[in-house]
TrEMBL record:
It comes from Oryza glumipatula. SUPFAM superfamilies: Stabilizer of iron transporter SufD. Belongs to the iron-sulfur cluster assembly SufBD family. This is Fe-S cluster assembly protein SufB. Residues 273-515 form the SUF system FeS cluster assembly SufBD core domain. Residues 48-67 are annotated as: Disordered. It holds the Pfam family SufBD_N.
Length: 544
């Protein structure tokens, strides 16, 4: 087994940050210095605090103050998805009990086997305690103060939008997800979920012509029970963790997709999750199955109103990839992150896992995390079959008082299995951003290979970034490569752009775009063309 790693050096600034010295990296003497190899395991912790005397600014102090104020004003731009929709809804009383679980199952007209699944998960949940091992700091979630089911009163007919409340349609129009026949996206099938229920799924009939099943998980439980029973909980069992057990007991809706053998899904499939009710948590369940030699690409988006209290989002995503099948799962997570003082925002506690069961199968996760007050998730891949491939591409952005503890797990069990990890963390304001990763190569995974690249970018003097890489190798013929870097956007680089007639806003955008390019290139076109604008909106004003 061969291993390689790289320590933290400031790529953007010739001035060392305190954490750089703490990690033992030398201060580079020029732009583009090489990273030093490092064999240490465990935690790499970086805090953007300047040490020693700072050299005078190339610009005057008054000009610097003006530029700082301009950037801070840009940072306070309004979250444009923070509106609340006014429609009639039905909600069950707040609180979590066995009666709550039974009521949810009753409202969804589920078969007995599904109720049994929920009750078994709830009983297991009662034996567990809320985890506290992440870097995130928050008050324990009061599960008795949450409403676990809220749905619009007017339900649509199957395959029809005739009875949907016009306000619901208007909501998704405002979000850029038109559902009406005249306006809906031509090349993307969308399952629109608001609070606890799916209100519409587009292009179902066209997909069925190819044998592709795409519908809400509630409809799949009733219409395709054998498929759901076979795969539900097979990748993420209820006992996996605290929030997976909670989700298994109370999940309300989500998406189901099954792609039959020898089929390429004719269009992108997508789910858009929207929270509207202030006191409701969202607990969706997504299950995607790619049968032998099939291919599917899935897009996921989400937003929520700008409430001044926190809300819980605890989802479970399961991917199953049979022999020579491929699933590409892309997420742009833009939940409300709270105001600049850290008030409000979504607690995003999610379990996402894929299983490459068959030989030559492939699962690729691509995520851009820009929202949520707190993010806690690790999209992972179990590489069971020989010649399987797992990929993870991630940009995690935090600003103001956001916290993120995210990363991935690559579990190698099959021979010649390969995995690749590219993680980009960006920390601004007073936020904390943590990458936590596991690469595990079992004894039977002969000739397995992993390449990991974890880079952190610090903006401002109060942000923090931590990295926790764990590598477990049980096979001597395998190879693992890991490198990490930490960089900081500084005053010198911004001045360099300014000398060439490029203002601060565009300068920051250029540096961020280059930093994130390796991840953005792996997003589907429907998301990729929006990413630069989204990142600019989130990051503008973070330097000052």
């Amino acid at each position: 087994m061969a291993a390689a790693a790289a320590s933290s050096t400031p790529l953007f600034s010739p001035c060392c940050a305190a954490a750089t010295a703490k990690l033992g990296a030398a201060c580079p003497s020029s732009y583009g210095s090489r990273r030093r190899p490092c064999t240490r395991r465990g935690r790499l912790s970086v805090v953007a605090v300047q040490t020693g005397p700072q050299k005078p600014s190339p610009s005057s102090s008054s000009q610097a103050v003006t530029e700082s104020e301009t950037l801070q004003n840009l940072l306070k731009r309004e979250y444009k998805y923070g509106f609340v929709s006014d429609f009639e809804s039905f909600s069950i009383p707040k609180g979590l009990s066995e009666a709550t679980v039974r009521r949810i199952s009753e409202l969804k007209a589920e078969p007995a086997w599904m109720l049994d699944f929920r009750l078994a998960a709830y009983r297991r949940f009662l034996t567990m305690v809320q985890p506290t091992w992440s870097d995130n700091v928050y008050e324990p979630v009061d599960l008795q103060s949450i409403c676990y089911y809220s749905a619009p009163k007017t339900k649509p007919k199957l395959n029809s939008l005739d009875e949907v409340d016009p306000e619901l349609l208007n909501t998704f129009d405002r979000l850029g997800i038109p559902l009406s026949e005249q306006k809906r996206l031509a090349n993307v099938a969308v399952d629109a979920v608001i609070d606890s229920t799916s209100i519409a799924t587009t292009h179902r009939e066209e997909l069925m012509k190819k044998g592709v099943i795409f519908c809400s998980i509630s409809e799949a439980i009733r219409e395709y029970p054998d498929l759901v029973k076979r795969y539900l909980g097979s990748v993420v069992p209820p006992a996996d963790n605290y929030y997976a057990a909670l989700n298994s007991a109370v999940f309300s809706d989500g998406s189901f997709c099954y792609v039959p053998k020898d089929t390429v899904c004719p269009m992108e499939i997508s789910t858009y999750f929207r929270i509207n009710d202030k006191e409701t948590g969202q607990f969706e369940r997504t299950l995607i199955v790619a049968d032998e030699r099939s291919t599917v690409s899935y897009l996921e988006g989400c937003t929520a109103p700008a409430y001044d209290s926190n809300q819980l989002h605890a989802a479970v995503v399961e991917l199953v990839c049979e022999e020579q099948a491929e699933i590409k799962y892309s997420t742009v997570q833009n939940w409300y992150s709270g105001d600049e003082e850290g008030k409000g925002g979504i607690y995003n506690f999610v379990t996402k896992r894929g299983r490459c069961k068959g030989r030559g199968s492939k699962i690729s996760w691509t995520q851009v995390e820009t929202g949520s007050a707190i993010t806690w998730k690790y999209p992972s891949v179990e590489l069971l079959g020989d010649d399987t491939v797992g990929e993870f591409y991630s940009v995690a952005l935090t600003k103001d008082y956001q916290q993120a503890d995210t990363g991935t797990k690559m579990i190698h069990k099959g021979k010649n299995s390969r995995s690749r990890i590219i993680s980009k963390g960006i920390s601004a304001g007073k936020s904390r951003n943590c990458y936590r990763g596991l690469v595990q190569i079992n004894s039977g995974a002969e000739n397995a290979y992993n390449s990991s690249q974890c880079d952190s970018l610090l903006i401002g003097d109060n942000a923090a970034a931590n990295t926790y890489p764990t590598i477990q190798v049980g096979c001597i013929s395998s190879r693992v490569e890991h490198e990490a870097s930490t960089s900081k956007i500084g005053e010198d680089q911004l001045f360099y752009f300014q000398q060439r007639g490029i203002d601060h806003e565009k300068a920051v955008a250029a540096m961020i775009g280059g930093f994130c390019r390796a991840v953005f290139e792996n997003l589907p076109y429907e998301f990729a063309h929006e990413m630069d604008a989204l990142m600019n909106l989130k990051l503008e004003g973070s330097v000052g």
